[in-house]
Design a protein that fits this description.
Strand content: 5-15%
Helix content: 25-40%
CATH architecture: 2-Layer Sandwich
Number of domains: 1
CATH topology: Nucleotidyltransferase, domain 5
Protein name: Transposase
Largest sheet: 2 strands, antiparallel
Strand order of the largest sheet: 1-2
Organism: Amycolatopsis carbonis
CATH class: Alpha Beta
Pfam families: DDE_3 (PF13358)
GO molecular function: nucleic acid binding
Length: about 150
């Protein structure tokens, strides 16, 4: 295969649907600063797709996500950046979607080209969105919601 590999960027909407974008792989850039324009483009795509109202963007704390240029643009365009703690990707609901994409499209596969692989990924995302449900009532009985281990402070 001669085509360069591409990374999948996912966004989960309130309706439970997943919007996937295939982008140039991160490893082609030499530093986090070189990836700032790519992340800003993603933020701008979100704002164009959802032009009104406040957007909440949950992401890991990877270098480009927290640069001043990104923070300033997002603040000016009513996008609130919410960073998951280091080594706590499980707090971001979209992370489980990466596992599902890998399981349903990549595990045990041998695609003849990157284009065929991308077609399988986008096909899975279309199927998944047809069968989507809003994520609600996450961890209803979780101690995160009603901690019983906090000290009683008067």
């Amino acid at each position: 295969m001669t085509a360069p590999r591409r990374d999948l960027r996912l966004m989960q909407q309130q309706a439970g649907e997943v919007d996937g974008r295939l982008a140039a792989p991160r490893r082609t850039a030499r530093s986090a600063d070189q990836l700032v324009p790519q992340f800003l483009d993603f933020c701008k795509q979100l704002r164009r797709r959802f032009p009104t109202g406040k957007l909440y963007l949950v992401s890991d704390n990877y270098g480009p996500h927290g640069k001043a240029e990104v923070r300033d643009w997002c603040a000016a365009n009513d996008i609130e950046l919410i960073y998951t703690p280091t080594n706590a990707s499980w707090l971001n609901w979209i992370e489980c979607e990466f596992t599902a994409v890998r399981y349903f499209t990549l595990d045990g596969s041998d695609y003849p080209s990157h284009a065929a692989q991308e077609a399988a990924i986008t096909g899975y995302l279309r199927w998944r969105n047809r069968h989507s449900h809003p994520k609600r009532h996450f961890a209803i009985n979780s101690k995160i919601r009603r901690p019983d281990y906090l000290p009683n402070v008067a």
